Amino acid sequence: MTPEAMTTAARPAAAHPRRRARSGPPGRRRHRLRHTLSALLLWATALLFLSPILYAAAVSLKPASDVFDIPPTLVGSEIRWENYVEALTYLPFLRFIANSLAVAGAGTVIVLTVSSLAAYAFARLRWPLRAAVFLLFLSTLMVPQEVLVIPLFIEMQLLGWVDSYQALVLPFAFTAFGTFLLRQFFLGIPAELEDAARIDGAGHARIFGSVMLPLARPTLAVLAVFTFITFWNSFLWPLVITHSIYEKGVVPVGLALFFSQQGSQWHLVMAAALVSMVPTVILVLLLRRHLVSGIATAGLGGR
Amino acid sequence: MLSPAPRRRPPGPGAGARPRRRTDSVAAAAFTSPAVLGLTAFTLFPLVMSVVVSLWHWPAFGEREFAGLANYTDLLTSRHFGRVLLNTIVYTVLYIPLNIGVSLGLALWISTMGRGKQTLRVLFFLPVVTPIVAQVLVWRLIYQPNGVIAGLLAPLGIDAPNFLGDSSWAMASMVVMSVWQGFGYNMLIFSAALDQIPSSVHDAASVDGVSPFQRLRAVTLPMISPMMFFATTMTLITSFQVFAQPYLLTGGGPGNATETLVLFLYREGFSAFSLGSAAAVGWFLFALILLVTIVQFLGQKRWVHYDS
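Predict the joint structure of the above. Result:
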């Protein structure tokens, strides 16, 4: 994973001198000019692309009366950081953030534990029906979440779990995706490593814990980040299953409630929206060097 | 170590509890049981349950009554549901080419950059990983009748349309917002594929005096076509599942001009509380997804090139 990311960065640097050497001096200058222009244009495109978020940030710092200024302004008559305090205290927003952190954190831990255990059995153990069970696992990946929402809601009613934390975490913590991803990784680990551990008297638990898991750390990290992000952003299921939002609401549901109550207070809505983006932005920035290679191997729920 | 004798050699003839020495059935059962239990409880059981529920008039609270296929036939004969299906298909037809076009174009463009390549990719990816609810609210503000677009167009003498309130604009506005939010994912997929094309391939093509456009058509696109196939299929599936955009951006309106399948499912289930009918909607969604996936797989031979 890492080497791929590194070659990504290294390749263009290596490719350009060669191309330059082929064309003569005037061509070289023209080429370089074109390249610079293209780069400038691309960065301008990126800025335009991000302008909705920058605009939201600008609005979040304005007084309410300046939101719909004509012509539009970036900075209002004053910069109001208090908007953030107001937005975060009108509803128990910090509580929503804590709930989201807890739900996404617990979900991630369960996904990682359960799928790495199962992946080990599918990749490194011999047992009857292995192929059939694995196929069954894979086929569950085709079922869209939306098909499960109604029966899961009824199941939660039967269990008495409607409006509970476990209902927010458990139903989507057993996806076969992580199992599939880690199985592919475990399959690639040379058998010699396992044999060496076995000669030292290690059983399956030890081989799993002290040989396989440490090797899988990069894959686990990618899976963890994507799982956390999926939980953090998830909207439909929390909307369906949470009733006492003030107490158990996660961030997207709290944000939607905030909008339905304070829809005209755009400066506050934008402040809350921006706060909700912070954790996943930080995660992606931390992972940025592995992002391209990670997505090539891991994918993400789509969208 | 005082561990018991190696598992490959059972200690004695009496201990032949394990019939086949080469299988690790006990360990496998232990390792897979959490996943198997979880998938059974939260995927397989609900799946079966969904079939059952869809055959009943099943209110969220109160008496249920067997309905046979009535939920399905009621949907098929409802003009409202027909409109919802049509909306979903229109959304998909607009969304897919825009998403694939923008993401492929930008992936190709960024791949020509030297420094800053990764940063650019991360920037375009950000809306994908931040809560969609937050992004929808940002765009709802931008699309306001007296909002920033209207304000920027006013000095040019252009009257901005009512993006969300005008039924001929609402769907387009929703698609634009969704493409902005979602294309970064496919852009990364394409970037990964482009990074894996050996530079010798490009060099060979440019030595042969092939124009950049021909190179794109004859070399680059065929080489990343498996990824394009994957991306189109996944994006098709997810565009059938669009929910937060109609729910929060347009409320499915004006009228029901932007009401999509999953919004309809949600309302059937949790506004009308007809869980049976909502479950049937879910199966229509599943059928639609299966159908396009099959069509995609059948069609792929014509344009997807795998390494032999």
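Chain A is about 75% helix and 0% strand.
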